[in-house]
């Protein structure tokens, strides 16, 4: 957990241009962004999602982003090549050392079972109502918690039996979505093709990242297994952690190494 | 053995080009965490802009006399190769941009290492050029599987608009830019063009 000193941040609210605009800030809706995912490992692209989303919401003039939360998925999700959550949380913490507004939260990863995204949202919502954000405490109005994701996640709403319809509705109706576009996706099309998303499109914010920044964690794992450099794709501190702990030395996408990978994990 | 970043001379007069002492300083900050890449300010300190082949010749002669910063003269003289993106390889086709004799010297005497970028076809550029074809054994095509198109043009525009560029540049470079008030205006924004008229030819 980051330790905030209130003297650092109380009374100072940053806009996209890092300029204080005292009077206007009071009318903006406070927002907290939550990103769920494997973060296996966390990359600069994950971190960019937050920066792009915050700038986008600030530019609407309607919102003030108070905090960002990274919530790595539970180990019981059993995704292929998923390293232990204590590593994934530790790497995210290292990656976020230089951020003054994004933090990692290990609650989801510490539960006994994997849980659906909507449950994670409900948990953090209730925490915000009881304690406020780590930065502002309970002095300010309760922020709106929004799910932050890439356009690829928005597309998964279409996959049969992956999401419950009632959950999709709760996410877009009660919380809200901030979706950062990725190359090869058509988020507007995904919304138009879904009655639920269409109905709550006012609560779905589409942000654009003009740089092509498709640093896939899958590629990073493969590069590491092949001994290739990932410098400048991940923060240096995360790369050092990976080397120190011998993570991602093998990669299931390489068939030649598959005999070393047979550890009984279901994928 | 070594990587060298050589920022261009200010007299190149490219739009929005900040002073070379800043560009060299920013590269130095970005390279603090690298144990094999360094920045060299020789090109930027010359009185005039110079063609790439002259920069190559200079560094080649430095390597022959002094060796690399790491190994000195103990090891065999290294081969100096020009590193570029596929977009630069494409510019060899642009009429009157490069001298044919220079292109030949680059690929014959030095060698090229070209990292592919989205939307380019480096093999096609080579096949379409007799000089490049002839020396293709000396042209190495590397592939970066991640789409990582962080254009400096976009970064300058984002900075001018007050948007975040965190995680696109090293933190130390972002801090330098803020401390020195660089890139606060951007010529690609027409509304700000009146502030940009400082007599520089673009």
UniProtKB/TrEMBL annotation, chain A:
Residues 34-222 form the Cytidyltransferase-like domain. One of its GO terms (cellular component) is mitochondrial matrix. It is an enzyme of class 2 (transferase). Its cofactor is Mg(2+). GO terms for biological process: NAD+ biosynthetic process. InterPro entries: Cyt_trans-like, Euk_NMN_adenylyltrnsfrase, NadD/NMNAT, NMNAT_euk, Rossmann-like_a/b/a_fold. Keywords: ATP-binding, Mitochondrion, NAD, Nucleotide-binding, Nucleotidyltransferase, Pyridine nucleotide biosynthesis, Transferase. It holds the Pfam family CTP_transf_like. Pathway: Cofactor biosynthesis; NAD(+) biosynthesis; deamido-NAD(+) from nicotinate D-ribonucleotide: step 1/1; Cofactor biosynthesis; NAD(+) biosynthesis; NAD(+) from nicotinamide D-ribonucleotide: step 1/1. The keyword Nucleotide-binding applies. GO terms for molecular function: ATP binding; nicotinamide-nucleotide adenylyltransferase activity; nicotinate-nucleotide adenylyltransferase activity. Catalyzes the formation of NAD(+) from nicotinamide mononucleotide (NMN) and ATP. Can also use the deamidated form; nicotinic acid mononucleotide (NaMN) as substrate with the same efficiency. Can use triazofurin monophosphate (TrMP) as substrate. Can also use GTP and ITP as nucleotide donors. Also catalyzes the reverse reaction, i.e. the pyrophosphorolytic cleavage of NAD(+). For the pyrophosphorolytic activity, can use NAD(+), NADH, NaAD, nicotinic acid adenine dinucleotide phosphate (NHD), nicotinamide guanine dinucleotide (NGD) as substrates. Belongs to the eukaryotic NMN adenylyltransferase family. This is Nicotinamide-nucleotide adenylyltransferase.
Automatic annotation (TrEMBL), chain B:
Residues 6-157 form the Cytidyltransferase-like domain. Its main location: mitochondrion. GO terms for molecular function: ATP binding; nicotinamide-nucleotide adenylyltransferase activity; nicotinate-nucleotide adenylyltransferase activity. One of its GO terms (biological process) is NAD+ biosynthetic process. Its EC number is 2.7.7.1, 2.7.7.18. It comes from the Eukaryota. It is found in: Mitochondrion. It catalyses: beta-nicotinamide D-ribonucleotide + ATP + H(+) = diphosphate + NAD(+); nicotinate beta-D-ribonucleotide + ATP + H(+) = deamido-NAD(+) + diphosphate. Keywords: ATP-binding, Mitochondrion, NAD, Nucleotide-binding, Nucleotidyltransferase, Pyridine nucleotide biosynthesis, Transferase. Its cofactor is Mg(2+). GO terms for cellular component: mitochondrial matrix. It is an enzyme of class 2 (transferase). Pathway: Cofactor biosynthesis; NAD(+) biosynthesis; NAD(+) from nicotinamide D-ribonucleotide: step 1/1; Cofactor biosynthesis; NAD(+) biosynthesis; deamido-NAD(+) from nicotinate D-ribonucleotide: step 1/1. SUPFAM superfamilies: Nucleotidylyl transferase. Catalyzes the formation of NAD(+) from nicotinamide mononucleotide (NMN) and ATP. Can also use the deamidated form; nicotinic acid mononucleotide (NaMN) as substrate with the same efficiency. Can use triazofurin monophosphate (TrMP) as substrate. Can also use GTP and ITP as nucleotide donors. Also catalyzes the reverse reaction, i.e. the pyrophosphorolytic cleavage of NAD(+). For the pyrophosphorolytic activity, can use NAD(+), NADH, NaAD, nicotinic acid adenine dinucleotide phosphate (NHD), nicotinamide guanine dinucleotide (NGD) as substrates. Belongs to the eukaryotic NMN adenylyltransferase family. Homotetramer. This is Nicotinamide-nucleotide adenylyltransferase. It comes from Octodon degus.
């Amino acid at each position: 957990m980051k330790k905030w000193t209130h003297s650092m941040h109380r009374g100072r609210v940053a806009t996209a241009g890092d300029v204080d605009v005292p009077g206007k800030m009071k009318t903006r809706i406070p927002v907290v962004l939550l990103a769920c995912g494997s973060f296996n490992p966390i990359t600069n692209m994950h971190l960019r999602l937050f920066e792009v989303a915050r700038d986008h919401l600030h530019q609407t003039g309607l919102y003030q982003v108070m905090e960002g939360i990274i919530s790595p998925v539970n180990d019981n999700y059993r995704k292929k090549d998923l390293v232990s959550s204590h590593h994934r949380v530790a790497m995210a913490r290292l990656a976020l050392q230089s951020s003054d507004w994004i933090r990692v939260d290990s609650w989801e990863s510490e539960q006994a079972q994997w849980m659906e995204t909507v449950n994670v949202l409900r948990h953090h919502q209730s925490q915000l109502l009881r304690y406020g954000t780590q930065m502002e405490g309970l002095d300010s109005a309760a922020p709106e918690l929004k799910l932050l994701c890439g356009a690829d996640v928005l597309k998964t709403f279409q996959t049969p039996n992956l999401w419950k319809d009632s959950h999709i509705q709760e996410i877009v109706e009660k919380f809200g979505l901030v979706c950062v576009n990725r190359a090869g996706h058509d988020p507007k099309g995904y919304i138009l093709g879904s009655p639920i998303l269409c109905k709550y499109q006012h609560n779905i914010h589409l942000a654009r990242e003009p740089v092509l920044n498709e640093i896939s964690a899958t590629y990073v794992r493969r590069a590491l297994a092949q001994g290739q450099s990932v410098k400048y794709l991940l923060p240096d501190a995360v790369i050092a952690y990976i080397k120190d702990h011998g993570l991602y030395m093998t990669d299931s996408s390489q068939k030649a190494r598959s005999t070393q990978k047979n550890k009984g994990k279901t994928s | 053995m070594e990587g060298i970043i050589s920022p261009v001379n200010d007299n190149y007069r490219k739009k929005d080009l900040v002073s070379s002492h800043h560009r060299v300083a920013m590269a130095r900050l970005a390279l603090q965490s690298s144990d094999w890449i360094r920045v060299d300010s020789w090109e930027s300190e010359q009185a005039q802009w110079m063609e790439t082949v002259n920069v190559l010749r200079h560094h080649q002669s430095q390597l022959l006399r002094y060796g690399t910063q790491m190994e000195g003269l103990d090891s065999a003289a290294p081969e100096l190769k020009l590193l570029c993106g596929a977009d630069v390889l494409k510019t060899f086709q642009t009429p009157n941009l490069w001298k044919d004799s220079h292109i030949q010297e680059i690929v014959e005497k030095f060698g090229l290492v070209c990292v592919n970028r989205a939307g380019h076809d480096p093999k096609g550029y080579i096949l379409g050029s007799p000089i490049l074809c002839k020396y293709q054994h000396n042209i190495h095509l590397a592939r970066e599987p991640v789409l990582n198109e962080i254009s400096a043009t976009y970064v300058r525009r984002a900075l001018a608009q007050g948007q975040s560029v965190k995680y696109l540049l090293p933190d130390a470079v972002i801090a330098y830019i803020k401390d020195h008030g660089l890139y606060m205006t951007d010529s690609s924004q027409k509304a700000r063009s009146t502030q940009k008229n400082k007599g520089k030819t673009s």
